[in-house]
Amino acid sequence: MTFGRVLREAGLEVGPGRVADAMTALDAVDLGRQDDVYWALRTTLVTRFEEIEPFDRAFNAWFLRAPVLPEARVVTTQLPRRGRPGRGDPVRGAEHRPDPDPLEVGWSPVEVLRRRDFAAMTPEEFARARALMRKLALIRPRRRSRRLRAHRRGEELDLRRLARRSLAHGGEPIARSYRRRLHVSRRLIVLCDISGSMEAYTRALLLFMHAVVEAGRVEVFAFGTRLTRLTVALRTRDPEQALEAAASTVVDWASGTLIGASLKAFNDGWGRRGLARGAVVLVVSDGWEREDPELVSREMARLARSAYAVVWVNPLKGHPGYEPLSAGMRAALPHVDRFVPGHNLASLEELADTLTAIDRRHAA
């Protein structure tokens, strides 16, 4: 279990399901053989090629107690840019002016903005980050539609369209039409923590929620000490007006945190209407619970039973040395399918990749 936490800190997507698979695999191998343990854990905990290198480093450090060398820093250099001729033709004797601007090899402003923590962003950086957030908001989880739509590569004949087209040929079905199931966006439900402990990240996350609402099929709720629906307030086209409308709608802004009571209000009210059925639920919170952690565990279990998948976004997870030690976070984690950070634009890109990678129910 602790090794799974180490892998999550190293950037791997290791949920409770993968940890359970790894423990099952370890029961079937000889724990005295290093190769058996290594391949059992790598087969169950690694899913992508780029995760092999951090897994090997974590395995050597945790099981073999090998020293871990820091990653080598890349020293940026300046390469001269080849001079460009002026507007005149050099053959005709025009003066040649070399380009005085050197080509700088290093971090671009966009890359620096991607790695900037939301808590340290200036208003100008927030304005530049909106365009990137809008692109990320268009990436949504998908599902296969139950309705058949017209498609030129379909497998089933569209009899109604076939009969209508045959009227132009005297009733002869010459032009055939087919139908197939298409992939459409899956409903997304966002429960965002706007308590005092999340105040440094609330503005940036609400800007991202505003961009997500524009994409459609999204319901956004805010919670502190109570649950408030923000979907209507965030439908305003201007982001600043949307934030003002959200601030006027929420009465418990930057107050305490009652995660369990807020989840119970959602399950009792909106959950019974079937809003979470078949949807991906996105919980954005640091996991600090003021009252009963057992209530958080019960309501998260209810939410997980009705939702297609539950993704928990914790801004604190992006900081080195973070461990989910708070009572609310520990109570919620057994019912979470994905546990990802949310402290900068790069983590939101990771969130977008996570949402698109969910291809089966409660895939850990």
Walkthrough of the structure:
The chain is of the alpha/beta class and 364 residues long. It folds into 3 domains: 2-62, no CATH class; 146-184, no CATH class; 186-357, Rossmann fold, CATH 3.40.50.410. 40% of the residues lie in helices and 15% in strands. It is built from 13 helices and 11 strands. A 6-stranded mixed beta sheet has the order 8-7-6-9-10-11. The chain has a 3-stranded antiparallel beta sheet with strand order 3-5-4, with no helix packed on it. It has a two-stranded antiparallel ribbon with strand order 1-2. A hairpin with a 3-residue loop joins strand 7 and strand 8 (227-229). Helix 6 (123-137) packs parallel to helix 8 (199-215). The radius of gyration is 26 Å and the shape is globular. Residues 72-107 have low confidence and may be disordered.
Keywords for this entry:
3 domains; globular; 6-stranded mixed sheet; single chain; alpha/beta; 364 residues; 3-stranded antiparallel sheet; Rossmann fold
Distance between the termini: 15 Å
What is the count of β-strands?
11
CATH-defined superfamily of the largest domain: von Willebrand factor, type A domain
Rg, Cα atoms, Å: 26 Å
Work out the oligomeric state of the chains in this entry.
single chain
